[in-house]
Amino acid sequence: xxxxxxxxxxxxxxxxxxxxxxxxxxxxxxxxxxxxxxxxxxxxxxxxxxxxxxxxxxxxxxxxxxxxxxxxxxxxxxxxxxxxxxxxxxxxxxxxxxxxxxxxxxxxxxxxxxxxxxxxxxxxxxxxxxxxxxxxxxxxxxxxxxxxxxxxxxxxxxxxxxxxxxxxxxxxxxxxxxxxxxxxxxxxxxxxxxxxxxxxxxxxxxxxxxxxxxxxxxxxxxxxxxxxxxxxxxxxxxxxxxxxxxxxxxxxxxxxxxxxxxxxxxxxxxxxxxxxxxxxxxxxxxxxxxxxxxxxxxxxxxxxxxxxxxxxxxxxxxxxxxxxxx
Length: 326
Known about the structure:
The N and C termini lie far apart (48 Å). The longest helix is centred in the C-terminal third of the chain and has 33 residues, at 229-261. With 326 residues, this protein is an all-alpha fold. The protein is built from 14 helices and no strands. Helices cover 71% and strands 0% of the residues. It is globular, with a radius of gyration of 21 Å. It has helices at residues 2-15, 18-44, 47-54, 60-63, 78-94, 101-115, 118-134, 139-163, 166-181, 188-206, 229-261, 267-280, 293-303, 314-325.
């Protein structure tokens, strides 16, 4: 799958133009609002309006359950929804000029909270803060952008918390209290992932470098269901496969860092996308476990080339022009 995603990256990069980039950016903003609204319909609405969400469920009973018990829309799980919304949030908040920035950011936060995806909810704020600090901008602009983020996190988080299913609120609260007390085994999500580490022990014992390839060990009763992309990759393809997967994500982050150093306005976005993809792999995964890799590839393609001065900041353009003039 990662090789297929690279094909998407190269093909879209060749076709990219300023008009296409603006259209895709508007589509991202609209998608964030629509997806979050649909998530609210699925969780809270009833009657004719609520029946829309049942179109994507195997049975009406499954469609009426908390998002975590079934796929959301055309996504495999609600965690995929949260990952997509996290990517949209980073994109609209880190670029200098985006339509309906505040509305899109608030909608994305609402959708993330409603989905009950704790990995994205906890990882997104620090990733945004680091990416925000990467960008060289004026004090007034920086303060204004942080104010929008704080407003989105506050209003969107509160709104999502009030509208979320009781199971989502209970799961998030229990995870926070378990992490604070250090009693991880009482949290189902954390305890299952700790049990998953036994799969890594099996791999180290049997075939640490190349992995076992087969899936025969994955569903063992003492291990439980395994979701982590890194653990599954290590188990099936060993240290060599895990190193290749991590190098792919690290390459995205390094590319963003280099773009940012050269004054490219998309540099922080690419670095943030790489960091969120890296965090998502701990509990799910975008490259192998799901089919969301094309969106990551599309965002990288939208950024253009690191040396493309067309998308550099105004300050960087002025500096380059004066150098050429001199």
